[in-house]
């Protein structure tokens, strides 16, 4: 299980990282909020353990940014502050759990397993960006409660891009994921499929959700208004 751990206190960081690794977790560590925010948006994690009080972007700002961009990764807030207002603010911003210092690593491990189990339900399977909603279980796409009919290939491509809003994917990456490795990299099937999806989803947006990046590939716009 891949964990992003953001914490600026060296002693806490050391014992938590050691404890998580002993339990078989792969830990990506940052000691400041700016790096933590960048990694949280760039990479896919199973869970993020996030201290509220870190240099740079604080934990609540990172959490707010993640949820605003449609990232549904489970987040556990970690802080020395234990007042009710802090807990409520974090939970209202979309945190999955809250643990106060001091704590045992065993408790944190249990909390991680609990939020990851919960994330396998509807929340993890529903991708929402702006007015657009994609249900990975029902395999439906809706915009303003109106269902949009997509072929299986169109759905898979849209899901692939929506899972990482703002990230640019090359045509080769899209081909390998959606069509398989045996397709000719010079084919234009990706461009054709993108155009078909745009015709179906763009009428309910102010501008195209699927953005072309010249000479590179495509990305899904992070918010409806960029």
TrEMBL record:
<dbReference type="GO" id="GO:0032993">
    <property type="term" value="C:protein-DNA complex"/>
</dbReference>
<dbReference type="InterPro" id="IPR039420">
    <property type="entry name" value="WalR-like"/>
</dbReference>
<dbReference type="InterPro" id="IPR001867">
    <property type="entry name" value="OmpR/PhoB-type_DNA-bd"/>
</dbReference>
<keyword id="KW-0238">DNA-binding</keyword>
<dbReference type="Pfam" id="PF00072">
    <property type="entry name" value="Response_reg"/>
</dbReference>
<dbReference type="InterPro" id="IPR001789">
    <property type="entry name" value="Sig_transdc_resp-reg_receiver"/>
</dbReference>
<keyword id="KW-0902">Two-component regulatory system</keyword>
<dbReference type="GO" id="GO:0000156">
    <property type="term" value="F:phosphorelay response regulator activity"/>
</dbReference>
<dbReference type="GO" id="GO:0006355">
    <property type="term" value="P:regulation of DNA-templated transcription"/>
</dbReference>
<dbReference type="Pfam" id="PF00486">
    <property type="entry name" value="Trans_reg_C"/>
</dbReference>
<keyword id="KW-0804">Transcription</keyword>
<feature type="domain" description="OmpR/PhoB-type">
    <location>
        <begin position="124"/>
        <end position="222"/>
    </location>
</feature>
<dbReference type="InterPro" id="IPR011006">
    <property type="entry name" value="CheY-like_superfamily"/>
</dbReference>
<feature type="domain" description="Response regulatory">
    <location>
        <begin position="2"/>
        <end position="116"/>
    </location>
</feature>
<keyword id="KW-0805">Transcription regulation</keyword>
<dbReference type="GO" id="GO:0005829">
    <property type="term" value="C:cytosol"/>
</dbReference>
<feature type="modified residue" description="4-aspartylphosphate">
    <location>
        <position position="51"/>
    </location>
</feature>
<dbReference type="GO" id="GO:0000976">
    <property type="term" value="F:transcription cis-regulatory region binding"/>
</dbReference>
<protein>
    <submittedName>
        <fullName>Response regulator transcription factor</fullName>
    </submittedName>
</protein>
<keyword id="KW-0597">Phosphoprotein</keyword>
<dbReference type="InterPro" id="IPR036388">
    <property type="entry name" value="WH-like_DNA-bd_sf"/>
</dbReference>
<feature type="DNA-binding region" description="OmpR/PhoB-type">
    <location>
        <begin position="124"/>
        <end position="222"/>
    </location>
</feature>
């Amino acid at each position: 299980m891949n964990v992003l751990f953001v914490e600026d206190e060296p002693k806490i960081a050391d014992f938590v990282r050691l404890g998580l690794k002993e339990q078989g977790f792969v830990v990506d560590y940052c000691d400041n909020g700016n790096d933590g925010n960048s990694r949280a948006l760039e990479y896919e994690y199973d869970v993020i353990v996030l201290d509220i009080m870190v240099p740079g972007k604080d934990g609540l700002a990172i959490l707010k940014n993640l949820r605003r961009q449609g990232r549904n990764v489970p987040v556990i807030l970690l802080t020395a502050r234990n007042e009710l207002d802090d807990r409520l603010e974090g939970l209202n911003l979309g945190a999955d759990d809250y643990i106060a210092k001091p704590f045992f690593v065993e408790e944190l491990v249990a909390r991680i397993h609990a939020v990851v189990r919960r994330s396998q339900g509807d929340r993890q399977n529903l991708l929402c960006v702006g007015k657009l909603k994609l249900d990975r279980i029902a395999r439906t796409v809706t915009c303003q409660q109106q269902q949009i009919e997509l072929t299986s290939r169109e759905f898979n491509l849209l899901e692939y891009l929506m899972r990482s809003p703002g990230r640019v994917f090359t045509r080769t990456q899209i081909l390998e994921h959606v069509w398989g490795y045996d397709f000719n990299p010079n084919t234009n099937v990706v461009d054709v499929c993108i155009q078909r999806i745009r015709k179906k989803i763009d009428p309910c947006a102010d501008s195209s959700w699927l953005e072309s990046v010249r000479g590179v590939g495509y990305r899904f716009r992070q918010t409806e208004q960029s």
